[in-house]
Amino acid sequence: MIKSNQQGRAWEYAIVEELIRNLPSDKVTLSPRTLQDQLRDRPKYMSLADTLKNRYQPGANCIFRWLEDDFSISSYGIEIDRLSDRSSNQNSKQSKFEV
Questions:
Q1: Which of 14, 22, 34, 98 would suit a FRET pair with 64, their CA atoms being 20 to 30 Å apart?
Q2: Which one-letter DSSP state was computed for residue 82?
Q3: Which residues pair with 29 in a beta bridge?
Q4: Model confidence pLDDT, tens digit, residues 23-67
Q5: Cα distances (angstroms) measured from residue 75 to each of 2, 16, 47
Q6: Strand partners of residue 30
Q7: Helix 32-46 and helix 3-22: axis angle, to 10°?
Q8: Are 68 and 74 in contact (CB under 8 A)?
Q9: Could you give the 3-state DSSP secondary structure of residue 79?
Q10: 72: left (phi over 0), alpha (psi -120 to 50) or beta
């Protein structure tokens, strides 16, 4: 596996774990795909050098803080659904994006 791909998946894992850690358990659910991806990517995250993990943690927390401060995500239930790699490739080929 390409190193940047492994690090990208580990980064996604870290973000989701930070959301889980900071949100009330009754306010967050993980889609089946996210559950699978978290299980797949945990070893990738755990195999990172501690220096890299220490960089991921503040970044993941910054994303949580932004979502909480701007969208109050802990006030209502959310579902986390990580996009598949295929979804990412399909979107990159499109010239128009829906928001």
A1: 98
A2: P
A3: 79
A4: 999 999 999 999 999 999 999 999 999 999 999 999 999 999 999
A5: 38, 18, 34
A6: 80
A7: 120
A8: yes
A9: strand
A10: left
Amino acid identity at 25: S
Block residue for tokens 């109050």: 72
Count of alpha carbons within 13 Å of 57, Cβ hemisphere only? 9
Three-state secondary structure readout of 15-72? HHHHHHHHCCHHHEEECHHHHHHHHHHHHHHHCCCHHHHHHHHHHHHHHHHHHHHHHC
CA distance 20 to 22: 6
Taking residues 81-95, report their average pLDDT.
63
- Among 39, 32, 33, 41, which residue's Cα sits nearest to residue 5? 41
Kindly tell me if the per-residue pLDDT of 92 is higher than 90: no
